[in-house]
Amino acid sequence: MTATPEQPYCLVLRLAAPLQSWGGPSPFNRRDTMPEPTKSGIIGLLAAAQGRRRQDPVEDLLGLSLGVRTDRTGTLLRDYHTASNLDGNPLLSAQTNNRGRQKTTSPAKNTYVTTRFYLQDAVFVAAVLGPHTLLDDLRTALAAPLFPLALGRRSCPPTHPLVLPYPGPRGPLWPGNLIEVLQTVPREGGQRGDRPLPATIDDLTGDEVRIDLPRSFDPLHRSYATRTVRNFWVNPPAPTTAAPSPDEHNPFAFME
Q1: DSSP track, the chain
Q2: Which of 47, 58, 117, 144 could form a disulfide with 52 if both were Cys (CB 3.0 to 4.6 A apart)?
Q3: Cα 171 from Cα 148, distance rounded (Å)
Q4: CA–CA distance, 202 with 208 (Å, rounded to integer)
Q5: What is the mean pLDDT of residues 52-66?
Q6: Is 90 within a domain?
Q7: Cβ pair 142, 49 in contact under 8 A
Q8: Phi-psi category of 140—alpha, beta or left, where left has phi over 0 and alpha has psi -120 to 50?
Q9: What range defines the domain where residue 20 resides?
Q10: pLDDT tens, position by position, 67-98
């Protein structure tokens, strides 16, 4: 496919799984999930597909523009999570001694309790806008990822298909800007009907600021910048594949 300088193209992802968790600002032992995929989570997924390590630069990916459409909101799952040492010793704290080794908790704690939240059975369509060559490289990497892919957390692998190719002869990238593509890609939530779906896109003139643009994924120097998004509604066409009939009970039909 040959792209013209005037024609924008998007890589379209279908983000669906039994569980997703898109972390935002969470205090201490509570790990919340945002109601839709974060830009840091999607950039991390793309970087993992290319085999980038956490210390590797991601500046070229930060210039990509993101649009997300919520096809199915899913439901919220609360996980009461505990962690303990197998040897029964007290857990380590975040403090270190003069040798750089972690100290044990004081008073000693043998069990660490956290509350984690997940989205169950949610479905999103994400459009990534950027240079045609970079998008094509990312599409190739997603087809054969070098690192395991996850939707926010390692315990949340995506279901297939992850990449939605353009159905026409000019595919697999979708022609158009973020709004045009989010309005064109058929619905993926599995529900019948033509109700409008919520969507967001990167937009400097938008009405909401989010802190989910990663400067670095390095665990020792992890930091985030802000981005501005615009919220709106789209009414995409119906799914290209028919939903199962009421007489056919297949609870995994929409995950195939």
Answers
A1: ----TT--EEEEEEEE-SEE-------TTEE---SS--HHHHHHHHHHHTT--TTS--HHHHT-EEEEEEEE--EEEEEEEEE--TT-PPPEEEEE-TTSPEEEPSS--S-EEEEEEEEES-EEEEEEE--HHHHHHHHHHHHS-SS---SSSTT-PPPSP-B---SSTT-SSEES-HHHHHHHSPP-S---S---EEEEEE-TT-SEEEEEEEEE--TTS-EEEEEEEEEEEE-PPPPSSPPPPTT---TTGGG-
A2: 47
A3: 26
A4: 10
A5: 94
A6: no
A7: yes
A8: alpha
A9: 9-78+119-241+248-255
A10: 999 999 999 999 887 877 778 778 777 778 88
Neighbour count for residue 248 (Cβ, 10 Å): 8
202-233 residue pLDDT tens: 999 999 999 999 988 888 788 889 999 999 99
Structural domains in the chain (count): 1
**Tokens encoding 209:** 């600021």
Is residue 4 domain-resident? no
Q: Evaluate whether 227 touches 68 at the Cβ level (below 8 Å).
A: no
The CATH code of the domain that includes 202 is 3.30.70.2660
Task: Give domain status of residue 94, yes or no.
Answer: no
Structure tokens at 3: 């792209």
226 falls within a domain: yes
* Average pLDDT score, the chain: 88
Q: Report the distance separating Cα 178 and Cα 136, nearest Å.
A: 17
